[in-house]
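Q: I'm writing up a methods section and want to include an example of the input and output format. Could you take the sequence below and give the corresponding predicted structure tokens, formatted cleanly so I can copy it straight into the document?
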Amino acid sequence: MPHKLESESRKLLGRLREALAADSEGQARLDAVVQLIADSMGTEVCSIYLFRDAETLELCATKGLQAEAVHQTRMRLGEGLVGRTAKSRAVVNTADAPSSKGFRYMPETGEERFSSFCGVPIQRLGEVLGVLVVQSKAAREYTPDEIYALEIVAMVIAEMTELGAFVGEGAALSARHQQPVMLRGSVAQEGATEGVVYLHEPRVVVTNPISDDPETERARLTDAIKLLRDGVDDMLVTAHAVDNDQAQVLEAYRMFANSTSWLRRMEDDVDNGLSAEAAVEKEQSLARARLSKSKDPYLRERLSDLDDLSNRLLRILTGQGAEARADIPENPILVARNIGPGELLEYGKQIKGIVLEEGSVGSHATIVARAWAIPLIINAKGVTREALNGDPILVDGEQGIAHLRPDETVQSAFRDKLAMQTRAQERYASIRDLPATSKCGTTTSLQMNAGLIADLPSLEGSGAEGVGLFRTELQFLIRNQMPRRAELSALYSRVLTAANGKRVAFRTLDIGSDKVLPYMKANDEPNPAMGWRAIRVGLDKPGVLRMQLQALLRAADGEPLDVMFPFITQFSEYRAARSEMDKAIARETILGHKLPKALRVGAMLETPSLAFAPDAFFEAVDFISIGGNDLKQFFFAADRENERVRKRYDTLDVSFLSLLEQIVARCDAAGTPLSFCGEDAGRPVEALCFAALGIKTLSMRPASVGPVKHLLRRVDLTEVKSVMDEAIAKGEQSVRRAVADWLVYQV
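A: Here is the clean output for your methods example:
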């Protein structure tokens, strides 16, 4: 870049710093900024447009257009050349603006007199805050060097907007991160809670975007890059010692960290007057804008790598986030883009709720949140940009809504909702030790799902009769290497001890699909939910399955043991899995270890195919547990990770209930105990219908035991079945409305 331009760029940024440091109102600062840019660029017009809401840009300052148009001229996102710049997140540079695609004539501004137009997005970390525009009467396109200088300035404006330098009257100049925001997402774990934001990755705030000492900033950048690269190298050494596949991923990561072009661009930014921190953020923002539009999954993955590297580099430069987890506030609501199970478990149960920008209903974080019975909202777009540490937040896990910095009206209504839930919990506590016996005399066994030793105290507190599903995969997911048999045996032993004689049904390792072990090579499958997962992995890797079965046998220490195999799709798979159990028993016998005095080996029915297995299967299996989440997914051909389709199909659909009824009949004929396990088991109306069909055991999250028991004890199941049959006879698609209407007069 020419030395003259470097000098001019630094001079402009120096003058900008003076203007921004002046003791003046936000509007006066904006007016000074556009004047300085117009003078420096030699253009007749310089304007700044900022968003007043998510879809509307507002002219907030101008040099060259009609002064009366300020705060009066507005346009929608994508409207006009300004709106086009904001929507595309890319520079729009034209010598003939009136003839350009999307040009909007705005007579109040007088801009038809100007031919050339250059719009540069004012953006910060992927978020567009506004548009910086320069215009001239002469028909010309602005040079790459001029555009580069404008991008530098736009970046400074973005940082100063974030810091509140332009706060004034009106929505477009309102202070950021101070207004109430309602964020819609998807429900991954139900519940409601109130607390304060605790960011998993605290924001790095650049308070010094402009520098007049390029040599010092270059040195700071060089030193920080060296520390970053050394850190990545250390990670790589560790990864090589643990797992080669993990090391290959980090090798690509290291290539990015050692990119000379990345460093050169940041050095150019520093030479032009930015601080080292601002240079990092500028390149991060531009890369985000460029790569986020790509449809190539590989490039989007590289964007994540760049984000992570940039954030690490910013933390080295600023020192922010070094003590990220030192002071966790009271009632923390964890806010993150995404989070792994190991990281989440590090926080422990002090977390009162979770709001994620990404995630899925089957993710590791969801599994842990369900185990802890804390509300979790996923796909809450923009939450990491909007939220600051310490912000008050309400998490409505029933509706999938997070209220950030709520006003008094919303807060009051939400607290009323929490108070009602508290009173309900008090009612449930009064029947905790009573059986779930309906008015007709039918008793339904209510059990809980668990996946951590920390979940077991809920067994007594919830009133559950046992653990109908203990997920064993969490102990595999949170480690960077395969656990040893002795470690697993000790863990399972502690689980059985904590259960204090109550039943615990251990599900063997259920990995694959959305649960991939960090130390196993991931399979790039087009449809992983229907691919190599669960018992299929166990049978293909019998050593791992056998090791887990031996650990379970030893943990029982002569006491009763229940084990069930996940995702059995046909009788032959159950026979093969049962054969592995027989081999494990034979091995333990040879070694002289105690065997369980009662061993029950069951299967999870999660695909329609198993419902139609031979009678011999139902007679051979010791018990069956319906895995409702997967069964519903495959029955309706609706991916439970896909928000567009997963809620279209009702659990109480007549066709699905017909399948369940057939399963109940076949289990009854074979004398095989049957349970239903899944989210729907914990929903009172669904649980009521399952019990009316004849399912005697329901397994759910601990918090659901009380509400389900409360309802079951107040109704006659024979009457519920009659209501369901009547709705079916009428040709209803679902029995939900009929049962809900009937319940109004019963409880």
